[in-house]
Fold:
Amino acid sequence: MDKKFQKIRNDFPILNQKVNGEPLVYLDNAATSQKPQVVIDEMVRFYQNDNANTHRSVHTLGERATEEYEAARVKVQKFINAASSREIVFTKGTTDGLNLVASTYGENNVVAGDEIVVSYMEHHSNLIPWQQLALRKHATLKYIELTADGQLDLNDANQKITNKTKIVALTQTSNVLGVTNDIKQLAIMAHDHNAVIVADGAQAVPHQPVDVQALDADFYAFSGHKMLGPMGIGVLYGKSNLLKSMPPYQFGGEMIDFVEKYQSSWADIPWKFEAGTQNVAGAIGLGKAIDYLKDIGMQNIADYENQLVDYALPKLLAIPGLTVYGPQDPQYRNGVISFNLTGLHPHDLATALDMDGIAVRAGHHCAQPLMKYLDVVATARASFYLYNNQADIDQLIRAIYETKEFFRL
Ligand code: PMP
Structure:
C-alpha cells in the first residue's frame, strides 16, 4: 500500500496511545475523525494571537479574525467548487445545515399536497427535518427503496420523484451501507420535475472529491469534524438564487442590514444566515483541515480507502456467522462497513473489540428506519479514514475471531 499514507499516521497525536493496554485502532471515522496536529495548532494560534469577534470591529485583532474567517469560507468554496464564496454558509454541522434548509426554503415552498422524497438510507438528520416539515405542511413524505444489495434503487427514484415533488433530500454516501449515490443523476430527476435536491454530504466530502456544480446540487450540507476539522463547524452550500430567495433561519446580531423599531431588513447572503457570534476558530480550523486534505489529494484519499476496503471486505465476509450489510462487492462500496455476528449483540461485540483497543461503533447509527428496513435492531460498524492501514484491519479481523472463540460462537 501507498508509503505516503503510512507516514500520515504520525500527524495524528491521538492515535499514538494504548487503550486497554493495546495500541489504539480507531475505526469510528464515520462518527468523527481525528485531528492532525496542524489543525490543533492552527486553532491554538488563532486563540493565542488573533482572537476577536468578526465583522463588527475596526481594531486590528477584529480585522484579522474577520479576514481569517472569510478566508476559510473561500477555502471551502474552492474545495467543493462552489461558484461563489457567497454560497457558503457556515453552520454548526450537517444537522444544522439541513434544518436550515427545511425551516427556510421548505417552510416557504412546501404546501399541503406536495411531496418530499427521501430514501430508506437517510441519517436522522436528513430525515426528521423533512418528516416534521411534511407534518407541519400536510405534505407527503415518500421513501425511495433500496436494491437487494443495499444500493439506492434508481428505478424506484424515477417513480417516486414526480411533478408533485418539491424537495428531494438524499445522502451522497450512506453512514451504514457504505454506498455512494449518484447525486448528479438524482439531481437531473429532481430538476426534470422542478424540484430541488438537497444532498447530505457528511460522509462524502471527507472521502472523495466533491464538485457541487458538477453534481448540480441545489443545497449540500456537511460537517467539519468528519473531515479532520473541529466539532461545531459545518457548511451549507446553496445556489445563490435560492439562498437569496430564502428567509433568515435565526434572527439577531450580524444578520441584519437595518433594524427599525417594528421591522428589519437582512444582510446579504451568506451573512443573512449567520446570526450571532460565529464559531470563528472552528472555521479557521476547518480551513486548515482543507489545506491538509488538499495537500494529500482527495482522489488519492479515495483510492487509498478503496484499497483498504478491497483488503478488509473479503476477510470480513470469510468470517463464519458474520453478516455484512450493503453490497458484498468491494467495487460498489466505500470505507464504511456495517456487520453483525450471529449470536452476539453488536454492543457486546463492540465492547469486546474495545478490550483489544479497537474502536468501532455499535447501534442504530441514527438510521432507525434503515435498521427496520434491514430487519436488524443494530449493527457494529467499522469505518476507515486516511490514517488507517492494513495492520488496523488485521487487528480487527483477529479480534473478531478471538471474540467468536471467547463466546463460543
Ligand atoms: N448525515 C450523515 C450521513 C452522517 O453520517 C451524519 C453524522 N453521523 C450526519 C448527517 C450528521 O452530522 P452532524 O452530527 O455532524 O450534524
Summary: The domain at 41-294 is CATH 3.40.640.10 (Aspartate Aminotransferase; domain 2). The chain is about 40% helix and 15% strand.
